[in-house]
Design a protein that fits this description.
single chain; 134 residues; 434 Repressor (Amino-terminal Domain); 8 helices; 0% strand
């Protein structure tokens, strides 16, 4: 039995999305949609600001002044201040700061392969790409 457009519309779901499905298929699709994680991406500026704030909190937990962190890391205190306030910093300086704050192990997780590959990755596992296409 096909799902009526009225029933679909009443649920706030675009009727075209489920056109031609029967009730069982429709329920399965809704169950999958309900279980899907919502992905909310933060703007880069917000991520940078939060990163700077977390770095400041890590510094304060170690009871370090900006000046002390600057001396130990080799990063100018003015750069540390800018980083803590805006999140703006060069990668090499970030690494230097992370090492002094004893957080360098967090770098090990950046750009690691996903533990659970997607179906597409499983299909292409035989041929690992050496370059991107675009």
């Amino acid at each position: 039995m096909a799902v009526s457009c009225a029933k679909i519309g009443a649920l706030g779901v675009p009727a075209q999305e489920f056109k031609g499905y029967n009730i069982s298929q429709y329920r399965q699709i809704l169950a999958i949609k309900d279980n899907m994680l919502s992905i909310n991406f933060k703007p880069a500026g917000q991520l940078l600001t939060e990163l700077g704030q977390r770095a400041k909190q890590a510094r304060l937990r170690l009871n370090l002044s900006r000046q002390t962190l600057a001396e130990r890391s080799g990063v100018p205190a003015s750069s540390i201040k800018r980083f803590e306030n805006t999140g703006q910093i060069g990668l090499a300086s970030l690494i230097d700061i992370m090492q002094v704050l004893d957080r360098q192990d967090e770098l090990e997780h950046l750009f690691m392969a996903n533990p659970v590959p997607s179906i597409r990755e499983l299909d292409s596992a035989q041929h690992l790409r050496q370059r991107g296409r675009q």
